[in-house]
Design brief:
160 residues, single chain, 7 helices
Amino acid sequence: MKTLIKGGLAVLAAFLAFTALARISVPALLGVNVFTAAVIVYAVEEGEIPGALAGAASGLIVDVFSYGLFGLAGLVKTATGFLAGFVSRKINVQPPGRLFVFAFVLAALDLGLWVLLAALISSEGIPWAGGWLFFQPVGTAALATSAHVVLRMIGDRRGR
C-alpha cells in the first residue's frame, strides 16, 4: 500500500509541475518532460512493476492533455517505467553522474519511441515545436537527477 501511495504522489507531483510549467513557459514545458522524470525516479526507487504502473498512469494523463491519440503516451511511459526499474535493479544508477546518463538515455528512448509511434499511427505529423523537443532528454535527465538527489537528502535527514 505504501508503494501505491508513493506512486500516486509521484504522479501528482508531476501533474502539479506540468501545470505550473504550462503557466510559466511553453518552451520550458517542451524542454523538460516532468512525467518521464517522475516515472524514472520512482521506478529507480521502487522497481519495474511499480514503475510501469506509474508510467501508465502518467502517460494517460499526458494523453488527456495532448488531445492526440489516446493511449500513445501511456504505452510509451509504461515501457519507460518498466525499463527504468528493470535496468536499475541490474546496475547501480544511484550516483548522480550515472543517474544523469541513465535518465538521459531513457528520456531519449522515451522521446524516440513516442516519435516513432506517432509517425506510424498519426497522419498529422510530429509537432517538433520549433526544435524544443530536442532539448527534452537533457532537461528531463537534469530534472530526474536533481529530484533523486533531493529525495535522497530528505530520506537521509528522516533517518537520523
